[in-house]
Structures are given as structure tokens and as C-alpha cells.
Specification:
The complex is a heterodimer of chains A (278) and B (443). With 278 residues, chain A is an all-alpha fold. Chain A has 10 helices and no strands. The chains are: A mainly alpha (278), B alpha/beta (443). The interface between A and B is medium-sized, with 21 and 25 residues.
Chain lengths: 278, 443
């Protein structure tokens, strides 16, 4: 087993342990577990940074080219952004929703072929990591919004139906969740916009055209419009609370679809095959 | 020395009897003095609240002390012993410690986790120290009970959720708004519960209060109390868009706020959430309002449901609290056990030391020719003999302090060496004084 794979597996293990701790915190209502989860997750994140760095050196290009690499990078971005949010909000329950997502992506990534692909030389410029990083940073922020959205819908249901189960005590106030949603939107939307713009510039340099309507681009545009509509609605007519939560959930599902299905099943410049230059 | 508890509480006794045995807080000196005067009682504390009356005592004779305390409680209140007896419980040893720790941590309260009981026991303790009826052991014991209660409070969330309807409303508001500081409350009508809830909101950070009432003068008066603003009843709906929390309890037979009106209000608020609490019966707000997005409407029954859920949550936390109590019992019980051994060992050593000193003086008086070196040698020799003789008994006494044999050994040692029993005045000392002595006797 290569050192890289070993690092990867230990990272995965730490994410798993953190997920279990977060779930214990929320389901068994033990604050200690949440605090331990934070440390384990931070450790896992640090190791993940090293894993990605090692992979970068080994591959000679940013580790975002294959399905294995981009899933792992996606998970890394989610954990990183979550830890940033955690500094401000200290919400173990948010961790209980985000870490399983990161863990799932990591397991998925472990299952994907791990060999290093040569990057098509015309694509191998600095625009590649810039475009992918911006896009994934946006994805990760929207993943937090997705988690907060689910939490909002649950808490809103509990308050409306007047059912006070353990989750009611564990979930934060509606306004807190709504403000997380807004924060995510106001960071995620610019990131996503810059991701799309940088992609267009990169495409123009590689192929001599900004936009080619490949399935990924189309889906990205649809998702972008969705988030743009939500941001607009929030600022002008007060689309907040439940509606914002539902929008964030749909938006993230679109993102996931465009990331996984389009890259995988549909053909186009964004498929990993195209990236590797055939 | 043993700690015993004799008493009754809401669990064993109906209020008709509880009120007869309660002690008036204005005259605690008399019962405390009488209790301390009982032949078997060395220290006394009386806790008397509307839910319980308990006597805490220190004694060397558990069985007789319990009998005496049971009689004392009946006699003091001129009750027939037979009437009172079936309601009384008594505890000694570990059970007494467990009981008092549980009571002070509010695990035995009618409303689990209610905070008053700790204050009540502190008051009882203050009376006992004022009248000097609590000595070394009860002092230490009650301080320990207070610290156990504090640990329970900080390490479990037994007291963190609201168990009154008006406070439950504040808690719900926190689950919606998180912070209440920048929120506005509107009071419609002036029911007692409504005012109480409003008071809770104000003491929890709400700064802006609007009050409306059919009689404007009443609205003005109430607004004055909360530092709020009176609003004419006919126009209250116009103010609703700036209101986050609505409290209603009017005597109106119909709805004061319709679903249509509420919908319009939430639209004008750009969907900023609203929390409405309808305490009136018949209700003031159309129940369909709860179906509107971003409005959360609660009536009295709903709030009662919150209280019930919180109580269930407290029961869960109580299990953690019981574990904390168990941990602390063992520690305190061991301290209590060692208490009798230490003064006995000290007295024994002092007795032998006194004998040695007087014999040495006699000997040195007779043998004037001894030089300094020889005197030193004789002194060292006699000291060594005493140490050797005392070594095993001391060890045995200290070891026995962990089990039931210690009382027997202590009695025997005191009788065989004719050690005087400790002066009760010496036993009644403030806490820190004891700590100093304890350290010296160990060293």
C-alpha cells in the first residue's frame, strides 16, 4: 500500500470517527462527544491537506483531475468550510449533517479508480486549479447551506407541529439557521460566479471559445440562476426561512447532479475522459 | 459519629399534615435549641419548606436518636405520635447522606430540578449557624451538599428547560429568534399570565414593549410598568408589522386577529418570523394562523405540552444527576468515618506524651549528674518506646475507620486509657478551623 493510500485511509477513518461522535452528540445528547468530534475532524482535515499535497507532487498537477481526486477534494472543501463556520457558530448538530456528507464522498472516492491520469497538455495551465478550486469552494459552501436547510425544515416542522423531541432541543434557533443560509449564499454565489467565469477564460485559452453549452455548463448555468433567484428574492421580497431552505436544498441537489451525473454519464468537455485527453 | 435524617415530604404526606408540622421561619431558635437538648443529639439543623420538614442531626446512638427525633417532631407541634408516625421517614449512614444530597440537588422535589430548594436549605443552615446548633459535622455536611447541588446544576441540564408556562414561551421564542434583545413584544389585553410572560420576556432581554387594551388607561398603566408604549386598541393591527412576539389574553368572544389579517402582516414584514402566544380562552387568534409560513402560534394547551416535554427531558437528566450524587456520597462517607479516629489517636498520643514528660522530669530531678548527651539519649529512648507502642494501635484505628469496627475500637481505646471524651464546645468550630486541625493531626 502506498503512503498516499495509507494517508487517505487514515483520513477517511478520522472522518468516520468524527461522524460517529457528532451523531452521538446529537442523538444521545452528549456535549463531550461533539467537542471530541471537533478535534478528530480537525485532525482529519490536517491529514487530508497532507494527502492532497502528496498527491499533487506525485501527479504533477492539481489533484482534481480524476473522479477519485475530485471527490476527495470536494470532501476536503466541505470539511474545511464547515470548520470555518464552526469557528463562528459552534454547532455540533451542523457537523452531524455535514460530516456524513464528506464521509460519503470519501467512501465514494475510495471506490473510484485511483491511478494518476496524465492531464491533456493544452488544459494543464494555472487556470485548471483556479477554476476547480473556486467551483468546489462554492460547492462546499452550498453544501453547508444544504445541511442548514435540512435542519431548518426539521426544526420548523417541530415548532409548527409542536412536537418536542430530543432533536428539538439539539437543533439551533430558526433564525440562526436562516442566517447561516444567508451567509452561505452571500459567499457561495460569488465563488460560484467566479468559478464559472474562470472556467470560461480557461476554455477560451484551451479551445478558443468561452462557452460551448456542454451539459455541465448548461447545468451549472441552471444552478447559478437558481441561486441568483434566491439571492434576489432574499434581498428584495424577503424570501427567507422555509423557502430559502427549500431553494438551498434543491440548488445543492442540482450541483450534485451536475457534478456526478454529468461528469460520469453524459459526454462533454467536463467528463474526466475529456480532461485526460481521451 | 453518624448523620441521621428524620422528616416528611410531599412524597409521604398530604398538605393537611405538612402544614401542621412546618416550623415558622421567624422562630427557629426555640425548636433548634430543643432539638439540640435531646440527650442523643450532638448537632441539629431543621429544614422546613412548604413541601418538606426534615431534621438533620448528628448522633452516636442512631436508634435512640431516631426515636427521640420522631417524638420531638410530634410533641413540638402537639400532635399524636401515632398520627404522624406513618408519614415519617428516617435515614442514617450512607442513606442519610444520599437523601440530603438528592434533596439539595432538587432530585426529590415536586418539580424536578426546581431551584428554590437549595436556597431553602441554605436558609435552614444559616439559622443553625446563627444559633450555633450546627457543629463540625453538619457544617461540613451541608457545605458538601451545596457543592453537590452546584455540580449537578453545572454538569447536567436538569434545570435548563422551562417548566412553567410563561417561561416556556420565552424558551420557544429563543428557538425561533435566538436573540431577544432586538425584538418587540406586543401585549394585547391584560391577563395575569400574559403579564407574567411579558415580564419574563423583558427580564430576558426584550427592550421594546407595546401594550394595547380596550381601556386605554389600563394600557397606559401597564406600559408604564414595562417601560413600553401604549397603543389604542382600534389601531393595534397597524403596529403588528413591527412586532415579533404577540401575547394576547383579551376577554373577547371572537377572534381579535384573523388569518387574513395575519397573512397581510407577515407579507408586510417581508416574512420575518412572528411568534404568537394566545393565552385567552376562548381564543383570540384564529388557529389557522399557525398554517401561515413564518408564523408560529401557540395556545395554552400547546405551552402546557412544552412544559410536559421539558419535564420528560429533566427526568433523563436526573439519571446523570443521581450518578454524581453516588460519586460524592462515598467520598463524604469516608471523611465522616475518619473523623472519630483522628481525635482519638491525637488524644492517645497526648496522654502518653504527658506521662513521658512528667516521668522524665522526675528522673532528671533525681539524676543530677547526667550530661547533655546522656539526657538527649534518654529522651530519644523514651520517645522511641512511645512511638513503637503506638505504632500498631494507630495503624489499626486508621484502618478501621473504613468499616463498621471503628466505633468499637474507639470506645475500647478511650476506656482503657481513660481518655476524656472531646469537649462538645471544641467540636463546634467553623469549617476552616477544622481544616487546619485536620492537617496538623495528620502531620
Amino acid at each position: 500500500m502506498s503512503v498516499n493510500l495509507l494517508l487517505f485511509k487514515i483520513t477517511l477513518l478520522l472522518y468516520f470517527v468524527a461522524t460517529v461522535f457528532y451523531l452521538i452528540d446529537v442523538l444521545a445528547q452528549k456535549d463531550v462527544a461533539g467537542k471530541m468530534a471537533r478535534w478528530v475532524l480537525s485532525g482529519g482535515f490536517l491529514l487530508h491537506c497532507i494527502t492532497l499535497g502528496a498527491r499533487w507532487i506525485e501527479a504533477g498537477h492539481a489533484p482534481m483531475a480524476s473522479l477519485h481526486e475530485s471527490l476527495s477534494f470536494f470532501a476536503w472543501a466541505i470539511v474545511g468550510i464547515f470548520l470555518l463556520f464552526d469557528l463562528r457558530y459552534r454547532l455540533a448538530v451542523l457537523g452531524a449533517f455535514c460530516t456524513p456528507l464528506a464521509l460519503g464522498l470519501m467512501i465514494f472516492s475510495l471506490g473510484a479508480p485511483r491511478e494518476i491520469k496524465e492531464l491533456n497538455p493544452i488544459l494543464d495551465t494555472w487556470w485548471f486549479p483556479v477554476h476547480v478550486s473556486l467551483a468546489f469552494a462554492g460547492y462546499a459552501v452550498f453544501a453547508i447551506a444544504f445541511a442548514a436547510g435540512i435542519m431548518y425544515l426539521i426544526q420548523e416542522r417541530l415548532l409548527k407541529k409542536k412536537r418536542f423531541s430530543g432533536l428539538y432541543f439539539r437543533l439551533p434557533a430558526l433564525n440562526t439557521l436562516d442566517s447561516i443560509n444567508y451567509k452561505c449564499l452571500s459567499f457561495g454565489f460569488p465563488l460560484m460566479t467566479m468559478g464559472i467565469v474562470s472556467g470560461a477564460i480557461w476554455a477560451n485559452m484551451a479551445w478558443g471559445g468561452y462557452w460551448r453549452w456542454d451539459p455541465k455548463e448548461t447545468w451549472a448555468l441552471i444552478t447559478w440562476f437558481l441561486y441568483a433567484a434566491l439571492l434576489h428574492g432574499r434581498l428584495t421580497v424577503g424570501w427567507r426561512g422555509r423557502r430559502a431552505a427549500i431553494f438551498s436544498i434543491i440548488g445543492f441537489l442540482c450541483l450534485l447532479f451536475s457534478f456526478l451525473c454529468v461528469n460520469w454519464f453524459l459526454s462533454g468537455e467536463h467528463s474526466f475522459r475529456a480532461l485526460a485527453g481521451g | 459519629m453518624n448523620i441521621i435524617v428524620v422528616g416528611l415530604s410531599h412524597r409521604t404526606t398530604p398538605v393537611e399534615i405538612r402544614e401542621k408540622v412546618a416550623f415558622a421561619p421567624t422562630e427557629m431558635e426555640k425548636p433548634l435549641r430543643q432539638m439540640l437538648a435531646l440527650s442523643t443529639v450532638n448537632e441539629a439543623v431543621i429544614v422546613s419548606t412548604c413541601n418538606r420538614v426534615e431534621l438533620y442531626a448528628c448522633t452516636r446512638d442512631i436508634d435512640n436518636a431516631i426515636v427521640q427525633l420522631r417524638c420531638f417532631l410530634a410533641d413540638y407541634h402537639n400532635l399524636d405520635n401515632a398520627v404522624l408516625a406513618p408519614h415519617l421517614y428516617d435515614y442514617y449512614g450512607e442513606d442519610a447522606i444520599r437523601h440530603v444530597f438528592r434533596v439539595s440537588s432538587s432530585l426529590d422535589s415536586m418539580v424536578l430540578g426546581e431551584p428554590q430548594i437549595l436556597g431553602q436549605i441554605k436558609t435552614a443552615y444559616a439559622y443553625a449557624t446563627e444559633h450555633k446548633t450546627a457543629g463540625l459535622i453538619l457544617n461540613r455536611f451541608l457545605h458538601k451538599a451545596f457543592s453537590v447541588a452546584k455540580r449537578v446544576r453545572t454538569e447536567t441540564s436538569i434545570a435548563s428547560s422551562a417548566v412553567s408556562v410563561s417561561f416556556a414561551a420565552v424558551e420557544l421564542a429563543r428557538k425561533i429568534f435566538e436573540k431577544l434583545e432586538d425584538k418587540t413584544v406586543m401585549l394585547i389585553g391584560a391577563g395575569e399570565m400574559c403579564e407574567l410572560a411579558a415580564r419574563h420576556f423583558v427580564s430576558n432581554g426584550v427592550r421594546s414593549v407595546l401594550v394595547t387594551n380596550r381601556t386605554f388607561a389600563r394600557a397606559e398603566k401597564l406600559a408604564d410598568e414595562f417601560g413600553g408604549r401604549p397603543v389604542p386598541f382600534a389601531e393595534f393591527a397597524d403596529y403588528l408589522p413591527q412586532v415579533d412576539i404577540v401575547l394576547t389574553s383579551t376577554g373577547a368572544p371572537d377572534f381579535v386577529l384573523s388569518a387574513e389579517k395575519a397573512e397581510e402582516v407577515i407579507r408586510r414584514r417581508k416574512n420575518k418570523p412572528m411568534f404568537m402566544i394566545d393565552i385567552a380562552v376562548p381564543r383570540d387568534i384564529d388557529p389557522r394562523v399557525n398554517d401561515i409560513d413564518n408564523i408560529y402560534l401557540y395556545d395554552v394547551d400547546d405551552l402546557q405540552g412544552v412544559v410536559a416535554a421539558n419535564l420528560k427531558e429533566r427526568k433523563k437528566e436526573a439519571k446523570k444527576a443521581e450518578m454524581i450524587v453516588e460519586q460524592e456520597i462515598g467520598q463524604f462517607f469516608r471523611w465522616l468515618g475518619s473523623l472519630d479516629v483522628v481525635p482519638t489517636v491525637v488524644a492517645l498520643r497526648r496522654k502518653l506524651e504527658d506521662i513521658r514528660r512528667s516521668e522524665l522530669e522526675k528522673t532528671f530531678g533525681n539524676l543530677k549528674g547526667l550530661d547533655e548527651k546522656e539526657r538527649k539519649a534518654i529522651e530519644a529512648l523514651t520517645a522511641a518506646i512511645i512511638n513503637k507502642v503506638l505504632h500498631h494501635p494507630t495503624l489499626l484505628l486508621k484502618q478501621s475507620s473504613n468499616d463498621a469496627t471503628s466505633d468499637g475500637y474507639i470506645d475500647a481505646v478511650r476506656a482503657l486509657f481513660n481518655l476524656e471524651t472531646p469537649n462538645p464546645d471544641n467540636e463546634i468550630k467553623p469549617l476552616d478551623h477544622f481544616d487546619g486541625e485536620g492537617k496538623r493531626s495528620h502531620g
